Amino acid sequence: MRTVELIQFLCEDHEKIDLIMKEMQKMRINDEIKDTLIFVEHPEIVTIGPKAKKEKIFPPEDYPRRLVDRGGGLTWHGPGQLVVYPVFKWDLKGEDNIKKIITKLEEWVINAFAELGIVGIRDSRMRGVWVNGNKVASIGLSFLKWVSRHGLSINYNTPKGRVELLEGCGLDAGITSSLAANNYLTNRKEIEKALIKKISILDRNLKNN
Question: Which of 26, 27, 46, 128 is geometrically suited to a Cys-Cys bond with 32, CB 3.0 to 4.6 A?
Fold first, then answer.
């Protein structure tokens, strides 16, 4: 069984939380802390993963940005987005590769969405959770000795057009969007409550993953 501690921040700079995660990752590797979830929002920032840097995909000039070491390309963070960082030691049955771990996180979000009456699915175009043909949840992780940093972001009510202007790696502008833009009105508190309710999914050995 996985015992999970929860830390909730209101709104903190991405760089600050990134530093906290790095320290917590070391502590988790040494079994000084339990698996820990961080819930937070960030002031606007676009994080640029190694894939985006390699392919020279960058946000427009008016977007603040910083380089990060997680998987994936460009990820927008800002108001109206819940960010979830699992500092987990992935050592349960069915967690023996990154694809399976990402699938488990997708399943968690899809089930939490269902609690809120939101139909979320996977899409062959990119990992994450999709609603009405738009990607509303992104996942990008970094591992050290099978302990993760970074995590997933859920766009519930982002500023109109802001995230839609960005091109992801392999995705055109306008594909990434928010729940509100797809006529699903919810808020951070409701999403957090649904994620906590469905957290047992992170203990399961998912079939067909």
Answer: 27
DSSP 8-state code for residue 124: T
Length of the chain: 209
- Residue 26 φ then ψ, to 5°: -60, -40
CA 88/CA 150 separation, integer angstroms: 10
Query: Which of 151, 160, 158 has the alpha carbon at shortest distance from 136?
Result: 158
Annotated active-site residue 11? The verdict is no
Domain span at 36: 4-201
CATH of the domain at 96: 3.30.930.10
Residue entry with tokens 């992104």: 138
Distances (CA, A) of 35 to 42, 76, 98, 162: 22, 26, 17, 33
Of 169, 199, 201, 206, which one is the catalytic site residue? Answer: 169
In a domain, 166, yes or no: yes
193: phi then psi, degrees, rounded to nearest 5: -60, -45
- On whether the CB atoms of residues 158 and 83 are closer than 8 A, the answer is no
Q: Tell me the DSSP string of 43-77.
A: SSEEEE-HHHHHTT----TTS-EEE--SSSSEEEE
Q: What angle do CA 162, 163, 166 make, to 5 degrees?
A: 105
Identify whether the C-beta of residue 25 lies closer than 8 Å to the C-beta of residue 144: yes
* pTM of the entire predicted model: 0.94
Once rounded to an integer, what is the mean pLDDT over residues 16-23?
A: 97
